[in-house]
Each structure stands twice: as C-alpha cells, then as structure tokens.
Amino acid sequence: MTEKIPYEIKPLKSNLRNNLLVSFFLVVSLGGIAANAIFLNVIQVTLSAEGLDPGAIERISRHYTLMSTSVTIAGILAILLIA
User: Fold this and answer.
1) Is 62 strand, coil or helix?
2) pTM for the predicted model, two decimal places
3) CB within 10 Å: which end of the chain, N or C, has fewer?
C-alpha cells in the first residue's frame, strides 16, 4: 500500500522588493494626484489675486493639469516597467 503524504499549504512569503514597489507606486500615484490638486488651487488663487483675466486663468489651469497629469502617468508607467 502507498502512504498518503499530507499536503501542507504554505503561506506566501512577502517579498521585500514587491512591497517596496507597491509602496512607491502608491506614493507616486496618490502623491502626484494630491500635489496636482493642491498646486492647481494655489495657481488659480494666486492668478485671481493678481487680477488676471478669468479666461487666461482657465487656459493656464488646463495646461498645468495636462502637464502634471502627464508627469504623474509617466511616473506610474516607469514604476510598472521596473516592476
């Protein structure tokens, strides 16, 4: 007769590299989004206080949003490529 060997499920070992990449990913993505929102508000308030035309403020805000979103996405893609 054959003996049955009990199968043991081992817990997954946490890999330090994966934890660092996930942490860095979260910091870059959430930090980028938060910084973009804060700086956009600061830019709009500052330009309004200087008496700039609302249409110009809107265009500047749109350009800033496009550039900052592109940088945040580029950072996220760089992290994913490293992973």
Assistant:
1) helix
2) 0.65
3) N
